Every structure is written in structure tokens, then in C-alpha cells.
Amino acid sequence: MAGDRERNTFAGRAGRYARVGGNMSGVAAKMVASRLFGTEMEHDKTAQELARALGNLKGPLMKVAQLLSTIPDALPPEYAAELQTLQSDAPPMGYPFVKRRMAAELGANWLSRFDRFDKAPAAAASLGQVHRARTLSGEEVACKLQYPNMDSAIEADLKQLGFIFGLHRRMRPGIDTTEIAKEIADRLREELNYTLEAGHAKLYGRIFEGDGTIRVPTVHEDLSTRRLLTMGWLDGARLLNYREAPLEERNTIAAALFRAYWAPFASVGVIHGDPHLGNYTVFEEDGAPRGINLLDYGCIRIFPVSFVGGVIDLYEGLRTGDDDRVVHAYETWGFKGLHRELIDILNIWARFIYGPILDDRTRSLADGTKPGEYGRREAFRVHQALKEKGPVTVPREFVFMDRAAVGLGAVLLHLQAELNFFQIFRTQLEGFSTERVAARQAEALQFAGLSAPDGHAPMPTVSA
Known about the structure:
The relative contact order is 0.12. It is built from 17 helices and 13 strands. It is globular. By secondary structure, it is α+β, with helices and mostly antiparallel strands. Strands 1, 2, 3, 4 and 7 form a 5-stranded antiparallel β-sheet that branches. Strands 6-11-10-8 form a 4-stranded mixed β-sheet, covered by helices on one side.
């Protein structure tokens, strides 16, 4: 974009490097000493120091840390547990600053384009903040406004991924994290493009059009830019408000959450890669919860149709005991050098991920498991085995597929719902074929103004 003073600049990166480097230097020094002298690191203590170093920073690196804490096998468990304690809330921009930001996006007379614009933000996070407003036509909207200089901050902070993943390669050599790092980098860059996020919201609106249990906000394109996204305001209550609700109400919410994950994937090959509590609210009708609002579309992954077919092949192979279909699925995804022992190890994780939808009965998701620990034990087992039989390179598409499944499970654990997940999933698969997915994906992406994925290449962004 010509004349865009906020796009990635050397000066912006240099300032960020200085702040990040100062915070990380102590942890880095311990790593270097450990390598030079062959000493053992106190991993629990070092993990705490790393969390403190990152916790003093705001912006993309905080988001990177939180992403890593929720991707199985991305980090050793003691580091993942510490990084999961980091809070994403950032100090909001003051209103004088907001006015300048809004003027930069919509012009000097920006306020005249709203009937009301709340000065105090409704929410503030790592990349931007949300203000509630009302349009001239009387519609309540949410204005998501990006903090300044995020492009430079993203590029500077992504450099720190090498350091963080170095921890993993030193202590858990069973998995090559190269593709994980690439995938995280591409998804984070996409999150800065609110024009792309608007397209994602339109895509989900198309998928759930007419659905009575899943609501998607309407995009106001005339009030949106690359760094400002205005969408309809959806009233709802926090999901955690329903932890003590009657089982039937918790089941209603859980079923909607489950469908919000699997229906887009099975129909058009799309998942929401960031399923956490803050991205949902619950709406009620006649005094009882009826469904969920989907609020954020920054981390959406659109998959090649071949990958979607591989996911279903693996599911059907595990369900029917068809080993050839299981192997075909792993090869379709891009796993290399497979042998019997390696396949058995991968199946440990696959059976955990698919467990709820392989079991044709009403059940809870994982009795006795805390949301923050969901998947950790299984990931540790797999990693220990891969240290002996690996290494294995995780294909990049696998990263957010796994993260979304584990994140969804953690959210569902808060509700302690009891559902037949198998039957809900089978409903999503009715009439499934890769040809139908390809046709539906092409139509939906064209409607939303999005580009199709190209094999293993990053999802191209939509220009502002």
C-alpha cells in the first residue's frame, strides 16, 4: 500500500528488538551457558523466567507465547504451562489517541459517520481494542481498532520464535518444529489484515446463514479498513456464566460450540484456529441459552481439499481399523518416512483427538481433566516415544488443526457437557466427498472475496 507509514519498517523493528532483547537476555544467557558447559538447566525455573520476560511485553510476542502454549508439542510442557498463565489484556489506548487512529482510517470527519461512539473501549487485547458504537442507521456495532506500528512489531517478535523454538529442539528433539514456526508466522501476519478478517467473517456468515444456534456478526465494509474492522454488535453473556447451569442448558451451548468447529471444516474445509473463551458469548431466548455468538475471525485456517480428505480418511481408518487408510491419510498430510512404529506413535495422538467422535455414546469430554491440562499427557507420551523413534516433521496444516481441536476441548471442559459427539459429527459428514467440499469451498470463497489455498503455500491475503 503506497504511502502506508505503518507498514514494516527498519526503525520500528529496531526499537522492538531492543525492548525484546533486554527482557530475553537473562534467559538467553542461561541457554548459552548450558550449551557451552554441558550443564543441566533448571527447566521449571527457566520457564518461569521466560514467562516473566514475555509478560512485560505487549503486542504480538505475547500472542506468540499464548499460541505456543496451546499447540501440542510446540514447547516442552513446563514452558507451555508457564506461558499459558500470561494474560492477553493490554493497556487500552486513551481517547485522544483513538481519535487520531480513527481519523487515520476513516478521515478527519470520522465521528460524523457514527450516531454514537463510546470513548472507553469495551475490550483491549494484544493487537488492538474494541469500541462499541452506533451507526447513523441505528445499528449497534463493534469497532475493532488496531494499535499503531503492529507490522513492525510482528516482524521483530517473529524473530524471537527462533529462540523459543530453540528450547524445544534442545530439550525435545523428537519433533522438528520448522513447519510449526512457519505456520504461526503466516497466521500472525494475516491477523493484522482486517480486510482479510472481514472476508473470514463473511465466509462464516455464509456457512451459518439461517442457523438458529450460531450467530455471526455482519461486516460494515463502509466503516472498515485494513486496520479498522466494524461489525454488528452481538449481545451475549460470558460462557463461564453457565458452568453451574442445568445440564440441558450446558449441552445446548456445547453442541453449538462443537458444530461451530466441525461444520465449517466438513463443508468447506475451514476451521477457527483460536477457540478460546473470549471468542464466544452465549445468547438467550425466552430466558434460556439458545446458542453462541462467534466474535473474532482473525485466526481462520482455510485448508486444501486434499487435507480435508486426509482428516476424514484418518477418522474412518481409525473407526474401522483400516490401517491402509490411516497410512494414506498421514501421507496425504505430508508426513515423511513413515514406518510401523512411527505410525503407532502418531495414532496415540490421533486417537486422543478423535476420541469423542469415535465413541457412539453419550459421554463427557474428559472426566477429571482440567481445561488447561487437556491434551498435555497425550502429547507428552507421543513426544517421549518420538525421541526414540523419530524425528518427525509436523506438516504445517496440522498445527492449527490440532490447536483448534485441543482449544475446543478445553472450552467444552468448562461446561462439563454430556453429549453423543459421535452422532453430532456423523451428521456433519452426511453426503461428504472431497468433490463436494471443493465445489462448496470455491463458491463460499468467491462470495467472501477470498483466495483459495494452494497446497502447502500460505493463504494469500486480500489487499486493502
